[in-house]
Amino acid sequence: AAQTVQMTVQPGDPKVQVSKHIYGHFAEHLGRCVYDGFWVDEKLNVPKQGRIRMDIVEALRKIKVPNLRWPGGCFADTYHWHDGVGPTAQRPNMLNMWWGNNLEDNSFGTHEFLELCKLLGTEPYLAANVGSGTVQEMAGWMEYLNSNSNTPLVMERRKNGHPEPYGVSWWGIGNESWGCGGNMTADYYTDVYKRYATFAHNYPGSPPLKKIVSGANGDDANWTETCMKKIPLNMMWGLTLHQYTLPTGSWTGSKGKATGFSEQEYFNTMRNCLRMEAIVTKHSAIMDKYDPQKKVALLVDEWGVWTDVEPGTNPGFLFQQNSLRDALVAGTTLNIFNNHAERVRGANLAQAVNVLQALVLTDKERMLLTPTYHVFDLYQVHQDAQLLPLQFTSPEYVMGAEKIPALNASASKDKNGVVHISLVNLDTQKSQKLETALAGVNWKSVSGRILTSPKVNDYNTFEKPNTVKLASFNGAKKRGEKLAVEIPPQSVVVLELK
Ligand code: AHR
Fold first, then answer.
1. CB-based contacts of 413: which residues, under 8 Å, 6+ apart?
2. Mind listing the domains of the chain with CATH numbers?
3. Which atom of ligand 1 is the closest one to the Cα of 72?
4. Is the CB of 28 under 6 A from ligand 1?
């Protein structure tokens, strides 16, 4: 019989919260994320406000999106914001050089994005063009959005229909500046960053800017070290990190299929996904050296599964299906972020709609919620709740000569004292028995929800949109003062104790 895992839920530190911003999302002008995703043809027969697709908005409101990053990604360093304001018919076309060489008509611009954020009830997170733009262009965007003085840019904003300043405070200064954002060295970028940040002004009446440094690629310690050493702490609010999970682990050749993969491929994907723990730990340790008080947030503002595109789709559109495996990656990654809440205070899944590890897929009028969406639904209870650290030794999930921890988890206590524990069992065969002691928690009953499916490569289609769906979970009991749980194979479970 399987051994019972002994887990303890620690009281934690009331000052350490799981920032809701860990649950952020990302909408790039890429493939069908914005155009034919959030922003549709006037003639498409779906509920719309203007051209914003409201069935998507409604689905995302349910999972509470704390922030939305836009307009890229790589696209951001080619984007000229001024092309996307003013009367739509007068906006110039541009070529989306990064993503499929698509002709972009700029009909979705700053005002449309901020309208979308308002409908979603979310914080806008803008990425300024550092790679091919100018300091003046970025500073002008900030003035246009946040100032209330009678400058030409502010008067233009008013004329374009928004009399009051928008007060946008989240600003990424560049994106992947080591790659598509300009192929800079870390040394060079830090100088560029300081130059841009100097002219990123606060305006009276608008919230102070949260200036965000374009951070490392995966485990590139030198990038983080250089940024932390050379940029004064009071010049940055956050520093980013991009880390994707590729099933094959390789950027060249096949990245692996999104569906129809073997258990070995599933295992490899989870092994690659679990690298996030070591990577976040490594960057956090470097940041601790220069910023022991943890003033600067680490934002993993691009993460998720990146597979080969669906056969027959444009390779530049990064459209991929989403299976139970994606849900297990999401549950695992969010547990890692929660457990690093002291330093990781933001993250953005790539991307919200029709691109990479999407929450929502659409096909003309049809829309489906992916297994990943359901994980964000389950985990929303952690947003802004107090982190409760966990102690346990995970059983192993063994595949040939390799093994990974089968079980991962995180826990938090919300403002009403309700405790939530999210548990992920990666093993495809074995369930995991848990006995949990909770120090200082007053609780009478436990309930839960589960996401699982008979096959780890099951997924939702437009014909069968509910193959992988949430169900209530009855496998947790109160036994004396302890919590006894049996977590089924390949599942994500979130328990509520109150
Ligand atoms: O999310 C897709 C792309 O991945 C982004 O544009 C870029 O920043 C990253 O390389």
1. 12, 385, 386, 388, 419, 420, 441
2. 4-9+389-497 (2.60.40.1180), 20-383 (3.20.20.80)
3. 6
4. yes
